[in-house]
Amino acid sequence: MSKVMVMNHPLIQHKLTLIRDKNTSPKDFRALLNEVALLMAYEVTRDLPLKEVEIETPICRTKSKMISGRQIGVVPILRAGLGMVDGILELVPAAKMGHIGLYRDPATMKPVEYYCKLPIDAEQRDIILVDPMLATGGSAVAAIDCIKKRGCKSIKLMNLIAAPEGIAVVQAAHPDVDIFVAAVDEKLNEHSYIVPGLGDAGDRLFGTK
Q1: Residue 106: pLDDT above 80?
Q2: Which one, 67, 87, 97, 133, has the greatest CB density within 10 A?
Q3: Catalytic residue of the set 70, 79, 104, 150
């Protein structure tokens, strides 16, 4: 079973409270989401492999550490996932980006892929799939399916807030994908919104309804 890491760092929790507040403006919401994504990316990338290299400082030659091996790919689920990308890229500017678009079929209520474009070398990268909310888990599972079909094997899921129901669905479908969140909330309501949650992340991010 995959692991679920809840990031309890005080800065993340403080900013998450501001993000949840219904009075936070779209401008501040975007800035805060970007900041939290950067802080979360620090933890998500903790296990990147290192190699020892020799360099010359202004004083002398010495051995030091650099990241080695696989590079990172950042893949947001459209549209709300876009709000988390800049923070990650600020921390890991060499990462390449992909995009996955999904919509919910009104008849079956299941996610349908309408767009998926990944870096050309995606299968050689550690993929970080990002979406602010992990509610029912349907979109996350469909997005991971899409990524795996294109040959990717190293995938991590990064969400701001998750519901227990969504975590269980992702773990059942993809037990090899670790989940990183800032909070696990109480439950889903009858409309599949996370409680207490923060509302619709996409609408709050872009000021739409």
Answers
A1: no
A2: 133
A3: 104
